[in-house]
Design brief:
Order of helices and strands: HEHHEEHEEEEEEEHHEEEEEEEEE
Number of strands: 19
Strand content: over 45%
Oligomer: single chain
Number of domains: 1
Distance between the termini: 7 Å
Shape: globular
Largest sheet: 14 strands, antiparallel, barrel
Structural class: mainly beta
CATH architecture: Beta Barrel
Length: about 375
């Protein structure tokens, strides 16, 4: 794989350009994750990133931190992907991949409401609007065609969706009077869970241009749909409540939660859009060892487009290192970590194996607040010499 192709892999990790040029299979495996929050302590974030029990002490720490920033919207997201392409050496390729995407957004009020209810909310209203959780797992198989100049490319794929779940709170509030005797609540939201197979189609496009030591790439993918079968589980809520003399625990014991929203297991068939994505990447190479790269990508449920500027240096025939600045994406533009530095290291071997990692906001790995921390790990293996 040429140096620029390796660098583009780093910049758009997870949305890898399948631009094979040899009659050998090419395999990509990537995973990435990160979050943005002023209100999630490092000890709590570690549990989400690396697993482990979330005990009451850490929950209390999280709730206190969240209560100090009532307007903060916490965001976390991640993706994992394995992809393979076989290039015929002519103008067509066979492509296949499997990917999973997770998107979580929550307010400080939602954290307190979920973990502590109204236990400490006397005289306050907890705002939960904007909270959302989405997850999906997709597999695809298809063909790609290039034009005679090999600058343009079109893909058509059959898509299999193995899992999809979502829950969105458009408007939500939970208030308790100062005396603790009147509870006010409201919820407007929707969601669904589908564990059965769904099938559909998607298309993608790519265009490359280069001249001398500069060039660019534009890519759009997963524009398509799957068909949900009848009988999926859905829920919806559009309810307001004012009551006296009850705590949330009392209401739960009386089965109130089941009456606050409605479920439906007989929903009809529907066409569901896929989480499409796109990107623009440009580069300038002042020398054989130095690469300046800019990238803008969007989609895959990121709440805002993500921009990145990076400088990469080929430090040795087997090592590439780089540093840059990114903004947007799951972190949005307005949080404390709306912009963050990035650092990367990549090792490439003569056998065709390229692997490495990229850290988003390395300072977040050191500070107790743990905000803005992200990690991307990638592996690229090309069989043969191409």
């Amino acid at each position: 794989m040429r140096t620029i192709e390796r660098l583009v892999v780093v910049v758009v990790v997870g949305w890898l350009p399948l631009a094979g040029v040899a009659q050998t299979p090419t395999l990509w495996i990537t995973t990435s994750g990160g979050y943005r929050s002023d209100a999630m302590p490092r000890a709590v974030a570690d549990r989400f990133l690396f697993g482990g029990a979330l005990d009451s002490a850490r929950v209390e720490q999280w709730v206190k931190a969240a209560a100090q920033r009532p307007g903060e919207l916490m965001r976390a997201g991640g993706a994992a992907r394995a992809a393979i392409e076989y290039d015929s050496g002519k103008r067509w390729s066979v492509v296949a991949d499997s990917r999973s995407i997770v998107d979580v957004r929550g307010t400080a009020g939602a954290v307190e409401a979920v973990f502590q209810g109204n236990a400490g909310a006397a005289g306050r209203t907890l705002e939960c609007g904007g909270t959302a959780v989405r997850a999906t797992a997709l597999n695809s198989l298809g063909l790609a065609w290039r034009d005679s100049s090999r600058k343009g490319r079109v893909e058509v794929r059959a898509v299999h969706r193995a899992l999809h779940a979502e829950g969105v709170v458009e408007e939500g509030r939970l208030g308790l009077s100062a005396a603790g005797d009147t509870l006010t609540a409201g919820l407007l939201g929707y969601g669904s869970v589908e564990r059965r197979d769904a099938w559909g189609l998607s298309v993608g496009m790519q265009w490359d241009w280069s001249r001398g030591r500069s060039g660019m790439q534009v890519r759009v993918g997963s524009i398509g749909f799957v068909v949900d079968r009848p009988g999926r589980v859905t829920w919806s809520a559009d309810t307001a409540l004012v009551t006296s003399g009850f705590s949330l625990a009392d209401l739960r014991s009386e089965g109130f939660a089941e009456r606050f929203y409605s479920t439906d297991t007989s929903a009809g068939a529907r066409i569901a859009l896929l989480p499409a994505h796109g990107e623009w990447t440009g580069f300038v190479s002042p020398s054989q060892r130095l690469w300046l790269i800019g990238s803008v990508r969007w989609g895959d449920w990121m709440p805002t487009p993500e921009g990145l500027v990076m400088c990469s240096v080929v430090a040795a025939p087997w090592l590439t290192v780089g540093a840059g600045v990114a903004a947007g994406g799951w972190g949005g533009w307005s949080t404390r970590a709306g912009w963050r530095p990035m650092a990367l290291a990549m090792v490439q071997t003569e056998a065709g194996l390229n692997c490495g990692l990229s850290l988003e906001d390395p300072r977040g790995w050191l500070q107790a607040s743990g905000y803005g921390r992200g990690l991307q790990v990638f592996v690229n293996y090309r069989m043969g010499k191409g």
